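User: For my dataset I need records formatted as: sequence, then structure tokens, nothing else. Please produce one.
Assistant:
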Amino acid sequence: MNNNTPVSPRPLGHLSDDVRSRVLSLAQLRERGVPGGRATAQCRPGGPWQQPLPGVFLLHAGPPTADERLRAVLLYAGRPSAESSRGVPAQPGRLSPSDAAGLSATSASPVSSSATSASSSATSASPYGAVMITGLAALALYGFTSAPPLLSLERIDVLVPRTRRLRSTGCARLIRAHSLPRPEELDGMPVAPVGRALADAVAELSDADAVVALLTEAVRAGHCEPALVVRELTQSGLLARPHVVEAVDSLLAEGRTLAEGRLYELVRVYGLQDPLWNVDLRLPGGPRLGSVDAYWPDQAVAVELDTRAPRPGGRAADRADDEDDDEQWSAAVRKREHLERLGITVVHLTPRKLREALDQQATVVRTALMAANDRDPAAPVVILPR
């Protein structure tokens, strides 16, 4: 044998032994000793492999599983584009030699400074770079029963940095963002947080019932709070759509009902004295002091639930919404300070605290009730049903 003796091709059967490694990028195949030409030859009609997306290879001939489709989309979206660095958009369905040579499952194109600060550590740990599954596919991964099954989705949404120059193609739909959230990891894949995934899903839906179902399940199943959902929808400019506004109204009502239910549970489970529920407080013969969700008149302790959320308006009204939200907060602070000057203790609870740490919130309320004996008597107030 001399240097001119051809080397027999390495058998490829071992590459598909691991079910979770049957989706590989061209760079990953080259790392395993498979040149690009041989990989392409494996995908010819009747061949043992297939190429579902540019630069991504599925190492069997049968239909891809849901997991394989997700990983293929992540590998496609996460690869850097050498053409993009020269100012030429990458073409869907084509893989240039420069793209193939630079293809890497552990690289990503540059992101903005805000995106980098938000997700740099997560990116460095992800084999897919600075991209993540979002939209309906992400919600399906989170277990949403109102989201379609993964295999029924024609396209899979993937969140990418705004500088990514690849195009949507095949089953991969790229959604560009100025800043990326920190992803969750599900089944070894980066997935957008529920709030962002909801916003990206709603952006593609025109069915009001489907939107209501997704938003309601997000809150009812404890995936996230209504205020977070509304904030994401506002930042995405979706609250200019009438069917989304109607869905948000239902969402906020659902969120307050759930929070009130947890407050009732707190009183019952932890053996607190029953308060007066949902009452208005007034000075005798004087002005209205405000409403509270629960009030213990003997101890002069009130509980307020903070279920505020940004008002609809979209991107163009962000500043006005911020000012309105600030005014709501200022009014709440003024009411609280006024009640406390009258000797009434106000306990401020959020839906998230009630959901995640009910026992701690019960301790807070019980402590306020027990401390009543150590305070001066409160000023008399008139209590009316709200």
